[in-house]
Amino acid sequence: MAQRKHLDYFLRGRIIGRLECERTQLEVSEELGIAQSVISRLWQRFQDDGNVSRCYSTGRPRVTTPNEDLNRRSTASDLSRQVFSATDTTVSRQAVYRRLGHIGLYARSPARCVPFTATHCRLRLTWSREHALWKPQQWFCGMFSDKSKFSL
């Protein structure tokens, strides 16, 4: 299959200029060596909105709409099932995962840590009550200094 080349703006202007001078699309295509279908599409776009610039697209159109992307709490599998039941459009789990990732939502597993005991909770609560009325100057007194040295 032949490689497609995009028309530069100068050539697009030449095509539109010749068509505005009452030349036929077939004559212009033969003069410039461009397929008549390309000239027809360019002329149609120019007549519709007066624009000859390229419509940029990056691949396949989206399967889901922005409104369907709003439910961020569901899993990718649940979302693909919901889209299928609502629109009869098959959307893979991976497509939903990529779409969520595109807007900055990624699934993360919580870090494994030691659970708090009742003693931990009580100590944290008393510490927070003791320091609740501290003024900003008291917080700057080196309690959270970044120059602390630790040895493990």
Count of DSSP-assigned helices: 7
Beta strand %: under 5%
Sheet with most strands: none
Helix content: 40-55%
Instruction: Name the average pLDDT.
Output: 81
The overall strand count is 0
Uncertain ranges = none
- Give the overall silhouette: elongated
Report how far the terminal alpha carbons are from each other. 64 Å
Structural class: mainly alpha
Question: Which value, in Å, is the CA radius of gyration?
Answer: 31 Å
The secondary-structure element order is HHHHHHH
Fill in the keyword field for this structure:
mainly alpha; single chain; 152 residues
Task: Tell me what the structure shows.
- This protein has helices at residues 9-20, 25-32, 36-49, 76-87, 93-102, 118-130, 136-139.
- With 152 residues, it is mainly α.
- Helix 1 (9-20) packs across helix 3 (36-49) and helix 4 crosses helix 5.
- The longest helix has 14 residues, at 36-49.
- It is elongated.
- The model has no long low-confidence stretch (mean pLDDT 81).
